[in-house]
Write a structure and sequence with these properties.
Layout lengths: L1 H9 L5 H4 L23 E5 L2 E5 L23 E4 L12 E5 L10 E6 L6 E2 L4 E6 L4 E5 L4 E6 L6 E2 L4 E6 L9 H14 L3 H19 L32 H16 L2 E9 L1 H18 L5 H15 L6 E3 L2 E3 L6 E3 L1 E2 L4 E2 L2 E2 L7 H17 L12 E5 L18 E5 L2 E8 L2 E15 L5 H16 L2 H5 L2
Helix pairs in contact: 7-8, 7-9
Length: 469
């Protein structure tokens, strides 16, 4: 190759025809001072920085050659620069859809489901898959308009931010359907299978050969063994289904078990007469909706009551950190919301600065997002105290579990009409049991009882909120 190059240059021929086949294999490292004084032609050299154009030379020496070159003049200009992309497609038509950033505390997730199929046309920022994390479900969107070429991951895979899961074609041509590929094994199997006539002929023969054995008397089958009264009867495995836990369910299970293992949990109970709060709601519900555009519920009343109780007993709003106690000067109330995928706890921030209408609007908006699966990580982060309303499902009494790293949780329950003694008379009253589960390492029974008593006083007489008594 070198000899051909020298001969071509010496005779004054075109160097482009020679180097057209040499650029991929010849990578010389020629010093700028090692070019002869004889004027030559113009060639292209492939250098580490790109392809350079070298003019005015007589011949070229590969590294390691003993021939010397003397410089007269050399000019070089970069034609193509190096590309440092880790991966690229030749025609630039294909783009990658990758897993987005999931949050500060989330490092990976599970590819739950694909929303589109290969060959489907998608628009820019249109969701094509869903990633299930320990807290929320995150959408993977298409980076550009195009057609899904293929998926490089499959459902159930554990993926991290930045991992490629799909290839999008920006052109109008989509992926070829996979149906023909699936039919190939069937065709091959049909070729290898015996003719239908031979199968039909073999079946009667088998019957004829087996017919003499039918005349022999069969031995009586042994009776099934009798089970004793103490022997357990298990259902067959065919009547059971094994389904992997979702990321959210696994995270909830881990956190609740850690809470049970870490905290010295104790629960105290009380009962609340809901008569006055229900009357307040009944008298002003229409005017409340007309002015604020949201219904007046019981949750806002309990949030306001919890704010007052936390202000009277700040230790309930504190938390243990090692051998220190961290007192919070803010009140962020977490509201437990049950969804089909699991329990989520969005946070009403600065609840002590909100009125009834602001609390109701915030709770309704967060609950809708939690149900739709569109709630963000930031909307569930933090929280200094939790309220769980099991009464919406008909729970009469329960002992809620603390939501780490908080120190207490208030449990609401269903409203039941029960006979109560009021003014010496037995009258029916709408009553609700309330429960406070707290970390006994930090909160003593005295503070817990006073806290729950404050909840009872405010709910039974909402006028206390106006007078701050």
């Amino acid at each position: 190759m070198l000899g051909a190059l020298r001969r071509k240059v010496a005779t004054g021929g075109s160097s482009a025809s020679v180097l057209g086949k040499s650029l991929q294999v010849i990578r010389p490292s020629v010093s700028a001072s090692r070019v002869s004084s004889n004027a030559g032609k113009e060639i292209l050299l492939l250098q580490p920085g790109g392809i350079v154009n070298v003019r005015n030379f007589s011949h070229l020496v590969l590294p390691g050659s003993s021939a010397g070159l003397t410089k007269t003049s050399i000019q070089s200009e970069t034609i193509i620069q190096k590309s440092f992309r880790a991966f690229s497609y030749g025609d630039g038509d294909l783009v990658d859809a990758v897993v987005p950033f999931m949050g500060e505390s989330i490092t990976d997730g599970t590819l739950a489901t694909f929303l589109k199929k290969p060959g489907d046309r998608v628009a820019a920022d249109e969701p094509i898959a869903q990633i299930e994390t320990v807290k929320v479900t995150i959408d993977v969107v298409s980076p550009q308009d195009g057609v899904i070429q293929e998926y490089v991951a499959k459902e159930g895979d554990t993926v991290e931010p930045g991992v490629k899961i799909a290839i999008i074609s920006k052109s109008s041509e989509g992926a070829a359907p996979a149906a023909p590929a699936e039919k190939k094994p069937e065709k091959a199997a049909s070729k290898r299978s015996p003719p239908l006539e031979s199968v039909k002929e073999d079946k009667p023969k088998a019957k004829v050969e087996a017919s003499p054995a039918v005349d022999k008397p069969k031995a009586p089958a042994p009776p099934p063994p009798k089970r004793t009264a103490t022997e357990s009867v298990l259902p067959p495995k065919e009547r059971e289904r094994r389904v992997p836990m979702t990321r959210l369910r696994k995270r909830v299970a881990t956190r609740l078990k850690d809470s049970q293992n870490t905290f010295a949990m104790l629960t105290t109970f009380n009962e609340v007469d809901m008569t006055n709060l229900m009357k307040l709601r009944s008298d002003y519900k229409d005017a409340f909706v007309e002015k604020h555009g949201v219904k007046l519920g019981f949750m806002s009343g309990f949030v306001k009551a919890a704010v007052g109780a936390l202000q009277h007993q700040p230790i309930v709003n504190a938390v243990i950190d090692g051998y220190d106690i961290i007192y919070r000067d803010y009140i962020d109330i977490s509201i437990a919301v049950g969804t089909l995928k699991g329990l989520v706890v969005p946070v009403v921030r600065d609840a002590d600065k909100m009125n009834f209408a602001e609390i109701e609007k915030t709770i309704n908006g967060l609950a809708k997002k939690a149900t739709d699966g569109t709630i963000s990580i930031d909307e569930m982060a933090g929280g200094s105290f939790t309220i769980s309303n099991g009464g919406v499902y008909g729970s009469l009494l329960s002992t809620p579990i603390i939501n780490p790293p908080q120190s207490a949780i208030l449990g609401m329950h269903s409203i039941v009409s029960r006979p109560m003694i009021v003014g010496g008379n037995v009258v029916p009253r709408p009553m609700m049991y309330v429960a406070l589960t707290y970390d006994h390492r930090l909160i003593d029974g005295r503070e817990a009882v006073f806290f729950l008593r404050r909840i009872k006083d405010v709910v039974e007489d909402p006028r206390r909120l106006l007078l701050d008594v």
